[in-house]
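Regression test case RT-17, inverse folding.

Input:
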């Protein structure tokens, strides 16, 4: 089994790019996480040839709800408090404990595409602590230290190094 975890699905660009590049195909299962209520992910996923399970939840460290700032792509939407943007439109969205979600996945080759606008630090730190990061084979990630007051470029580099040292391939989008 091959699984793509598309965290920060938005309009499906990561899934679409991996499909176009031949990295994934119709035999993969995609889990698409996108909490933005203004994005019709159920309609977008119809274009993909593989099974796509949509999750209208923000990837986070625990299940529940959290304030989410909806913005234009030039000023990306994000969980409140995880990035430095300040759009006015705030909505309450459900969150998912991503580490627990990954822990419950079947044995598989797992590619995780993560573009979650600053939430990646706390999510990945929890996954490392709980060992669930070790289920991931490839982590394709955009780090957002430039927007997050509590994390620096050096913190991003250390986090990626720690993950690589566990034998996980890390691909960075910056």
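Golden output:
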């Amino acid at each position: 089994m091959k699984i793509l975890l598309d965290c920060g699905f938005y309009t499906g660009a990561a899934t679409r790019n991996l499909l176009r590049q031949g990295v994934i195909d119709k035999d993969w299962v995609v889990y698409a996480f996108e909490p933005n209520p203004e994005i019709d992910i159920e309609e977008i996923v119809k274009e993909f040839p593989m099974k796509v399970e949509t999750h209208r939840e923000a990837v986070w460290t625990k299940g529940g709800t959290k304030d989410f700032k909806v913005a234009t792509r030039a000023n990306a939407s994000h969980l409140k408090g995880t990035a430095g943007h300040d759009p006015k439109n705030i909505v309450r969205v459900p969150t998912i404990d991503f580490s627990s979600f990954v822990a419950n996945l079947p044995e598989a080759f797992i590619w995780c595409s993560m573009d979650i606008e600053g939430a990646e630090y706390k999510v990945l730190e929890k996954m490392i602590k709980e060992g669930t990061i070790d289920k991931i084979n490839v982590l394709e990630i955009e780090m957002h230290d430039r927007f997050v007051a509590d994390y620096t470029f050096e913190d991003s580099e250390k986090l990626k190094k720690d993950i690589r040292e566990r034998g996980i391939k890390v691909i960075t989008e910056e």
